[in-house]
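Structure first, sequence second, as always.
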C-alpha cells in the first residue's frame, strides 16, 4: 500500500490527504479528521496557500508527528518575490521549519508556464528555497496535460500533480508514462472528479491500477477517511462488475462532465464557461463560498449574452454541448443558492 514518490524516494501511503475541504470545518473538527487519517497510515498531506486556513489546520493536527509525515503545499504566485513571501506565510501557518514538497500552483496555460520559468519567475524561488533547506523537493500542479508535459521537459521537477479519474483519464496516454520515464512523482488530484462520480471507492481503485504515486481525495469527515483508506486496503483490485459500472458511469458523464482543460476559454462574451460547468465540484469542495458567489454573479450577467457563436464547442475536445450546459448550470446554481437562502 506504499509507493515511492518518484525521485524524492519518499515512501508514501497510496491514499494521501487532499486539504481543500477541511477549510469549511471548525478547527477542532478539521484536526480530528486529519488526525484520523494519520492514525490509519496516511502520511502525505497536500494543502495550498489558497485553501483558506487549511495549512493552519494541517499544521495543528500534525505538529507532534512532523517527522513522520510529508507535507506538500503550493504557491499561487508567478514571480520570485511573491513566491518567497508565500513560502514564509506557508511555513508560519503550518508551523514548520521546512516543507517537504513545495509546488507551483495551477500552472495551466503556456503563458503562465513561461512566466514561472522566467529568470525572475516563481520557479527560481522554489530552487533557492530548496538550496536553503527550507524545502526538500519541488513540484508543479496544473489541469492542462500539454502544459504539464512541456513543464517537465523544460525543468526536472521532483513531482507533478494533475487531475486523473475514470472520466478524465487523458493523463494515462502521455503524461503518466513520461513522468515514469523521468522518475517524477505523480500526485493525483480530483480522483473523484469533485464528487461527480457515482462510484467513489471504485474510482480510487481504478486510479491505483495505473502507475501513479499517490492519490489525494479531499476528505472532510472521519467516515470519509475511514471509507477511503479501508476500502483500498481491503480490496485493491477491480472486479468485472466494477469495470462494468465504470463504463456505465463514463457513458452517463461523457457529454456533461467538464474536465477543466480550459481549451474552450476565453469566451468572447466573458462567460466563465469552465467554472460554471464545474460549479457543483466547487460547491462540494468549498460550500457556498465567496468564489462560488462570484462565479454566479459573473455567469448571471454574461450567460444571457451568449451569441451561440459555437467557438467554445468547436474547441472542446470532449464535444460538450456547452451552449446548452451553461444555461442548465446557471439555472441549477440559482435554485441551489435560493434554496440555501444565499440569494
Ligand atoms: S457560444 Fe456562447 S459561450 Fe460559447 S464562446 Fe460563443 S458566446 Fe461564448
Ligand atoms: S467545456 Fe470542454 S474545453 Fe471547456 S474546460 Fe470543459 S472540457 Fe475543457
Amino acid at each position: 500500500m506504499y509507493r515511492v514518490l518518484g525521485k524524492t524516494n519518499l515512501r508514501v501511503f497510496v491514499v494521501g490527504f487532499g486539504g481543500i475541504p477541511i477549510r469549511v470545518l471548525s478547527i477542532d473538527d478539521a484536526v480530528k479528521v486529519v488526525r484520523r487519517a494519520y492514525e490509519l497510515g496516511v502520511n502525505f498531506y497536500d494543502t495550498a496557500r489558497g485553501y483558506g486556513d487549511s495549512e493552519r489546520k494541517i499544521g495543528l493536527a500534525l505538529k507532534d508527528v512532523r517527522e513522520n509525515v510529508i507535507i506538500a503545499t503550493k504557491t499561487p504566485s508567478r514571480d520570485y518575490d511573491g513566491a518567497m513571501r508565500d513560502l514564509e506565510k506557508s511555513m508560519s501557518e503550518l508551523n514548520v521549519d521546512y516543507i517537504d514538497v513545495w509546488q507551483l500552483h495551477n500552472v495551466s496555460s503556456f503563458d503562465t508556464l513561461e512566466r514561472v520559468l522566467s529568470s525572475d519567475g516563481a520557479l527560481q524561488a522554489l530552487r533557492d528555497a530548496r538550496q536553503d533547506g527550507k524545502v526538500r523537493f519541488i513540484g508543479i500542479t496544473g489541469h492542462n496535460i500539454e502544459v504539464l508535459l512541456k513543464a517537465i521537459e523544460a525543468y526536472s521537477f521532483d513531482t507533478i500533480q494533475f487531475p486523473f479519474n475514470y472520466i478524465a483519464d487523458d493523463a494515462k496516454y502521455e503524461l503518466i508514462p513520461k513522468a515514469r520515464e523521468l522518475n517524477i512523482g505523480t500526485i493525483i488530484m480530483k480522483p473523484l472528479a469533485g464528487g461527480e462520480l457515482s462510484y467513489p471507492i471504485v474510482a480510487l481503485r481504478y486510479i491505483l491500477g495505473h502507475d501513479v504515486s499517490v492519490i489525494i481525495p479531499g476528505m472532510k469527515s472521519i467516515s470519509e477517511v475511514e471509507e477511503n483508506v479501508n476500502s483500498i486496503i481491503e480490496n485493491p483490485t477491480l472486479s468485472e462488475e466494477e469495470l462494468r459500472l465504470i463504463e456505465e458511469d463514463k457513458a452517463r458523464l461523457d457529454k456533461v462532465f467538464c474536465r477543466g482543460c480550459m481549451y474552450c476559454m476565453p469566451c468572447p462574451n466573458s462567460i466563465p464557461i469552465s467554472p460554471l460547468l464545474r460549479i457543483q465540484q466547487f460547491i462540494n469542495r468549498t460550500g457556498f463560498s465567496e468564489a462560488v458567489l462570484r462565479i454566479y454573479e459573473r455567469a448571471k450577467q454574461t450567460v444571457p449574452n451568449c451569441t451561440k457563436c459555437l467557438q467554445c464547442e468547436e474547441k472542446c475536445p470532449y464535444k460538450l454541448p456547452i451552449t446548452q450546459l451553461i444555461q442548465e448550470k446557471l439555472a441549477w446554481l440559482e435554485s441551489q443558492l435560493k434554496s440555501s437562502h444565499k440569494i
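Margin note: DSSP finds 15 helices and ten strands in the chain.
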